[in-house]
Automatic annotation (TrEMBL):
Belongs to the protein kinase superfamily. CMGC Ser/Thr protein kinase family. CDC2/CDKX subfamily. It is found in: Nucleus. The keyword Nucleus applies. Its EC number is 2.7.11.22. This is Cyclin-dependent kinase 1. Keywords: ATP-binding, Kinase, Nucleotide-binding, Nucleus, Serine/threonine-protein kinase, Transferase. ATP binds at residue 46.
Amino acid sequence: MSLSADKYNKINIADKYIRQEKIGEGTYGVVYKAWNKITSRVVALKKIRLGPTKAEGLTTTTLREISILSRTDHKNIVKLLEYHHHRSKLYMAFEFCEMDLRKFIDSYQNLRLRIPANIIKKFTFQLLSGIKYCHSHGILHRDLKPQNLLIDAAGDLKIADFGLARQLSYSLRPLTHEVVTLWYRAPEILLGSMYYTMSIDMWSAGCIFAEMSSGAALFRAIPFLIHRDT
């Protein structure tokens, strides 16, 4: 899998940014809210710990995310601004978004309020617009969930986290069924199918729409399905 050169910065981009606060952390690394000293732009700066056993020291999920986001250009897909690979670290600078949809839904749940219908319609339209763009370019996201949908300062939704995304093949090549967080998985994936299409993203989108409408996940984990998943 080749990486796009147009967003690669030969200068260590970590030196271009002043880290303001940590906004996320996981097995992949850490995400900071950072300020560009040159442009004064606020970004989300992801620092990734590189795996020593992968090609070029980069994990497959990281390679996929860089490769796909370097080729996408849509207002409802988060923008990768630049990246830099230096020794044991990879830095990726993304446009900054205020929160994710999970936190947005929870903020209404905590107040025991329903999300207004006009906001649900707006977010659903923007989600489907982003999915349509991906599918029209042969990209399966495969991990759509509220945590991977970001909301910017203008209140617009953007699809993020393309680490599990794949380029769609029309040759019916088998794909792994270990994708999509359990509550948002399509039935064919839960049943172990390795032959699936764009419909799995649409199923996830439907689950997300239902969760925004009701305030609760549509399909919570069922014991026998959890057993099958492990």
